[in-house]
């Protein structure tokens, strides 16, 4: 997608949830389409040796405080699911199953997954749960659930995660604008300025 803002994220990244709430409006303001691209953050962790915020002492407590603060500031509903972070492999696979036919529907699915996961604790680990959820959005749930278990979609999700890391992605959310990388929800304003000014 030429000129797109590439939005790379793990569904279990809470900062990605807040980015997902804002990215479409940002894209509209700067006249850029948004290319939604889930990946598995664990792939990056294996490469870097990092740990997630929710499993790192001190960082865990701060992050939870910060997420609640971001939710209050934005007026967003936000409740961490029990057992957070879940390994959202099924959600990632379901996204790419949908994306094969309609990137727009895949983006709609991703937005809905974020909303349901961070408000109602949607199970993002189960192919069947993802199929049922997709059916509730008017999509072919049985096809999507089956696709999540197919070799082709499993390979697609793996390759997308590996390709993200190969390009230098090590966190979520992550953005590319004309190959310029921006890491983190807190770099979205800088990214918008970069697009408006042509960079520096």
TrEMBL record:
It catalyses: 2-hydroxychromene-2-carboxylate = (3E)-4-(2-hydroxyphenyl)-2-oxobut-3-enoate. Its EC number is 5.99.1.4. Residues 5-194 form the DSBA-like thioredoxin domain. InterPro entries: DSBA-like_thioredoxin_dom, GST_Kappa/NadH, HCCAis_GSTk, NahD-like, Thioredoxin-like_sf. GO terms for biological process: glutathione metabolic process; naphthalene catabolic process. GO terms for molecular function: 2-hydroxychromene-2-carboxylate isomerase activity; glutathione peroxidase activity; glutathione transferase activity. Keywords: Isomerase. CDD domains: DsbA_HCCA_Iso. It is an enzyme of class 5 (isomerase). The active site is at residue 13. Signal peptide: none annotated. It holds the Pfam family DSBA. Belongs to the GST superfamily. NadH family. This is 2-hydroxychromene-2-carboxylate isomerase. The lineage of its organism: Bacteria, Pseudomonadati, Pseudomonadota, Alphaproteobacteria, Rhodospirillales.
